Amino acid sequence: VILDQAHDEL
Amino acid sequence: MNFFRLLGDLSHLASILILLHKIKTTRSCRGLSFKTQALYVAVFITRYLDLTYRWVSLYNFVMKLFFIGSSCATLYLMRYKYCPTHDPSIDTFKIEYLVGPCAILALIFNYKFSVSEVLWSFSIFLESVAILPQLFMLQRTGEAETITTHYLAALGIYRAFYIPNWIYRYFTEGVVDPIAIVAGIAQTGLYLDFFYVYFTKVMQGEKFELPA
Q: Which of B29, B60, B66, B72 has a CB 3.0–4.6 Å from the CB of B56, allowing a cystine?
């Protein structure tokens, strides 16, 4: 499970 | 980027264009909640602070600028240009009840205890409930202009499209963003009553009216 810290979504 | 996310973003884009179109053509913000629009400004500004220090893509950059710009423009139109058409006496939802709990949730649930990450979490939680003053207003008046219901439908569908996007990303990239997923499902859930009336009435050519 990778947390999505890049926040590449809007 | 995948198909579902693109559809979601396009739906979000469409919702804002419909909203601005409604205000411009009817020269009125009747039926719109100023509080909900103000919450969206807070959502976009707190979430898109990373515009200033992180480059994701041109698409991402342009969309972020558009969402901040259009939400501020909407607020301006409602507050100044078409101010007399806004009736604060029916826009009475207490936003303190939304902002406070979202701030507390953001302090507890975040990916890193830093200013930008807590604000990002806050924006996700706040977005999930930002529509409540608008839905509350709709409930009070019991009816809405058709164009306003198209706006709300596009806005609701946007986050709904993100749900298959998250499932898709889990299987293709192994990416899971629990904060966005939980808030996104809650956000979509808030629209279920509205969707029911929208699809059974407005889509059949009837006026949006809630049962007495």
A: B60
Q: β-strand B208-209 against B143-144: which pairing, if any?
A: antiparallel
Q: B-side interface with A, Cβ within 8 Å?
A: 5, 9, 12, 47, 50, 56-57, 60, 63-64, 67, 111-112, 117, 120, 162, 165, 173-178, 180
Domain-wise residue ranges, chain B: 3-197
For residues B59 and B105, the answer to whether their CB atoms sit within 8 Å is no
- Encode chain B (212 residues) as per-residue pLDDT tens digits: 899 999 999 999 999 999 999 999 999 999 999 999 999 999 999 999 999 998 999 999 999 999 999 999 999 999 999 988 888 899 999 999 999 999 999 999 999 999 999 999 999 999 999 999 999 999 999 999 999 999 999 999 999 999 999 999 999 999 899 999 999 999 999 999 999 999 999 999 999 998 87
CA distance B30 to chain A (A): 28
Residues of chain A in contact with residue B5, where contact means CB-CB under 8 angstroms, are: 9
Q: Do residues B147 and B21 touch, judged by C-beta distance below 8 A?
A: yes
